[in-house]
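Deliverable D4.2, example record:
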Amino acid sequence: MSGEAVQVIVRCRPLNKREKSLNCKIAVDIVTDIGQVQLNKHGSSDPPKKFTFDGAYGMDSNSQIIYDDVGFPLIESVLQGYNGTIFAYGQTGCGKSFTMEGIPTPPE
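Output generated by the structure prediction step:
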């Protein structure tokens, strides 16, 4: 994390059971190295729409990686006397709880 006051970090959750049962396709590609999310429109020849954030994590990321990269530096700053907040935002079912809690029994 850099010294910016506000950062926007994106984490893409895996497909849930309902989405899998409906044979939904994954519509995003995450380019973690550059913090980019690419939205793909299946069946279209249009190029993907690209959005760049301060950080982007794909479906293969785990809660420990997110904590190490985002949470720990924030907590260190709080212990030095700075204010800090982690705010999960998004529509219902988009993965806020998944991002904050991870999976119940992680394979790590």
